[in-house]
Write a structure and sequence with these properties.
The chain is an alpha/beta fold and 311 residues long. Helices cover 46% and strands 15% of the residues. It folds into two domains: 2-96, Ubiquitin-associated (UBA) domain (Helicase, Ruva Protein, domain 3, Orthogonal Bundle); 102-308, 3-Layer(aba) Sandwich (Rossmann fold), CATH 3.40.50. The protein has helices at 2-15, 18-33, 44-55, 60-65, 73-87, 92-96, 120-133, 149-157, 169-181, 196-203, 222-230, 248-258, 276-285; strands at 98-101, 104-107, 139-143, 161-166, 188-191, 212-215, 265-270, 289-295, 301-308. The strands form two sheets. The chain has a seven-stranded mixed β-sheet, sandwiched between helices. The protein has a two-stranded antiparallel sheet with strand order 1-2. Bound molecules: glutamine.
C-alpha cells in the first residue's frame, strides 16, 4: 500500500517536470484558443512558454535548461491561473503586465491598448522629422497616447519637449506610471478629446504649437470592433473603434491639427492597411502638403504624414 502511494506520488512528481507542464499547458491552450477572435494570431506553444517563464521568473533559456526539473508547487499554482486567464481571453501581455516597445518594457493591462510593433513606424517617422529639424528641442505632441509608448519613446530617444493626451483617464494612469518607470517624467499627460487639451493650452499661452503631432487613433471599423468585443476581445473598444469606416477620428484629427500646427508643422497618423488612399485624400482636402504614406515591415500602408503650411 505504502509502496503504491509512493510510486503514484513519483508519477505525479514526474508529471510536474517543466517539460511535461509546458506540454500539458500547450495542449490546453490549443484547445481553448481554437475559438479565439480572428486576428488574435493564436500561438499556444509560445504563450504557454512565455507564461511559464514568467511564473517561474526565468528567461526562456533558463527554462529550457531546467526542462527535466520539477516545477515548484507555488510556481505551478500561479502558472495554472495564468493559463486559465489566457484561456478566458486575456492577452499574454495583460497577464505579464508588460509589453516591449522600441526596446523598453511598458506596463499594460485591462483598460489600455497593448502597443503593437507596427506603431514603431510612427515613432521612426517622428524621430526622422526631429533629426531633420536639427536641434532646438522641438515640441512633439502625441495624441491618443494610451500606454504612452509613442510619447515616452520619443522623449527618451531625442532631445525634445513632449506632451501627450488621451480621452481615457484609465489609459493615462498607465502612461503616467510608464513615464515614471522609464525615466520620462518630463512628458506632460493631459486628459481630453483628441486635440482639445492641446488647443486649450495653446490658446491660454501655456504651450506652443507643436512642430510634430503624432497619433495612433482608433481606426478599426465599428462593426469589426463589435464583432471582436462580442467574441471576448479584451482591449477597450474606445481605443479601437473609429466609426463606420474607421476614419472618423483620423478625419477629425487632421482638421483639428490644422488649427494647432505652426507653419511647416507635421501631422503623423497611424492608419489601417486599407486606409492609405482615403487618408491621403483627407489630408489634402484639409489643405496639407507633402502628404506621404509609409509602409510597415509587412509592406502595408501604416503611417500617413502631412505638412501644414499656414495660408
Ligand atoms: N493596430 C490595432 C489593431 O489592429 C488597432 C489600433 C488602433 O485602432 N489604433 O488591432
Amino acid at each position: 500500500m505504502t509502496g503504491m502511494l509512493t510510486s503514484r506520488n513519483m508519477d505525479r512528481k514526474t508529471d510536474n517536470r517543466f517539460r511535461s507542464v509546458l506540454r500539458a499547458a500547450t495542449d490546453r491552450l490549443r484547445a481553448c484558443l481554437a475559438d479565439a477572435p480572428a486576428g488574435s494570431g493564436e500561438t499556444p506553444y509560445l504563450d504557454a512558454l512565455v507564461l511559464l517563464a514568467h511564473a517561474a521568473s526565468m528567461t526562456s533559456e533558463q527554462l529550457f535548461a531546467a526542462f527535466e526539473d520539477q516545477v515548484p508547487d507555488p510556481v505551478l499554482a500561479e502558472y495554472q491561473s495564468f493559463v486559465s486567464d489566457r484561456c478566458d481571453g486575456a492577452p499574454v501581455s495583460y497577464i505579464r503586465r508588460v509589453k516591449e516597445f522600441f526596446g523598453r518594457d511598458f506596463l499594460v493591462g485591462p483598460g489600455v491598448l497593448v502597443p503593437r510593433p507596427d506603431t514603431e513606424m510612427l515613432v521612426e517617422s517622428a524621430l526622422d522629422e526631429i533629426d531633420r529639424l536639427r536641434g532646438g528641442s522641438p515640441h512633439v505632441h502625441d495624441c491618443c497616447t494610451g500606454s504612452g509608448c509613442v510619447a515616452i519613446t520619443i522623449a527618451r530617444e531625442r532631445d525634445c519637449t513632449v506632451t501627450a493626451s488621451d480621452s481615457s483617464e484609465e489609459a493615462l494612469s498607465y502612461a503616467r506610471s510608464n513615464a515614471v518607470a522609464l525615466d520620462a517624467t518630463s512628458v506632460a499627460f493631459w486628459n481630453g478629446d483628441l486635440l482639445a487639451p492641446l488647443r486649450t493650452r495653446i490658446a491660454g499661452g501655456q504651450t506652443t504649437g507643436p512642430a510634430i503631432i503624432t497619433a495612433n487613433p482608433p481606426y478599426v471599423a465599428d462593426n469589426e470592433v463589435d464583432h471582436l468585443i462580442e467574441r471576448g476581445w479584451p482591449e477597450p473598444a474606445l481605443a479601437l473603434a473609429g466609426g463606420q469606416d474607421g476614419l472618423l477620428f483620423i478625419g477629425r484629427l487632421i482638421r483639428e491639427a490644422a488649427a494647432c500646427l505652426p507653419d511647416g508643422g507635421c501631422l503623423m497618423v497611424e492608419i489601417g492597411a486599407d486606409q492609405g488612399p482615403a487618408t491621403v485624400r483627407l489630408f489634402e482636402e484639409a489643405g496639407f502638403g507633402e502628404v506621404s504614406l509609409i509602409r510597415d515591415l509587412g509592406d502595408r500602408d501604416r503611417v500617413c504624414n502631412g505638412r501644414w503650411y499656414r495660408r
